[in-house]
Amino acid sequence: MQQHNTDTDQPPPTPQPTGAAPVQPASVADCPARAFSSYLLHRPEINRPGFVYAAYSEGNGCKVGKTCQRDPMLRVVQFNTCVKNPYALVEAIHCSNPSELEKFMHKQLKGYKVGTHNRELFDVDVGTANALFNKVRDAMHIMGLTEGAHAAID
């Protein structure tokens, strides 16, 4: 082991890799663990307004999730960075408590859940997602609840 030379204040030489090219560190955007940690540090309050959305991907199915970002498309762009078949936003409902609405929608789709690894992925087509979101909107209207910024993308 080489000692640091205090007489010249020079750091010891950096060892050079032998054989394969050096591995570059992942950027923050490429590392799910760092992204998740960042999310936990900036976690929204439980009753913060936001969106419940449906995004569809051929080969992956329908993802029903929530976001407190100002536009659900921003969330779709985030998770599209790490999938083979990109998702398209097909529905979104703006509400005062997206956590509760997301739980309700997941219960409605329980029989269509894909695997146990992802709680937001369902084996339903766009028409089924549209029908569920329309039923929720109808119920909100009957209950006198207004939807903030509704986004339905064809």
Structure, explained:
The structure is a single chain. The protein is of the alpha+beta class and 154 residues long. Helix content is 30%, strand content 16%. It has four helices and four strands, in the order H-E-E-H-E-H-E-H. The protein has a four-stranded antiparallel β-sheet with strand order 3-1-2-4, sandwiched between helices.
Annotate the secondary structure layout:
Elements: H1 32-41, E1 50-57, E2 61-67, H2 72-79, E3 88-95, H3 98-108, E4 121-122, H4 126-142
Antiparallel strand pairs: 1-2, 1-3, 2-4
Short description:
With 154 residues, the chain is an alpha+beta fold. It is 30% helix and 16% strand.
Throw out a few tags for this protein.
disordered C terminus; 4-stranded antiparallel sheet; alpha+beta; 154 residues; 4 helices
Give the biggest beta sheet: 4 strands, antiparallel
> Number of DSSP strands?
4
* Oligomer designation: single chain
* Count of alpha/pi helices: 4
Which secondary-structure class do the elements indicate?
alpha+beta
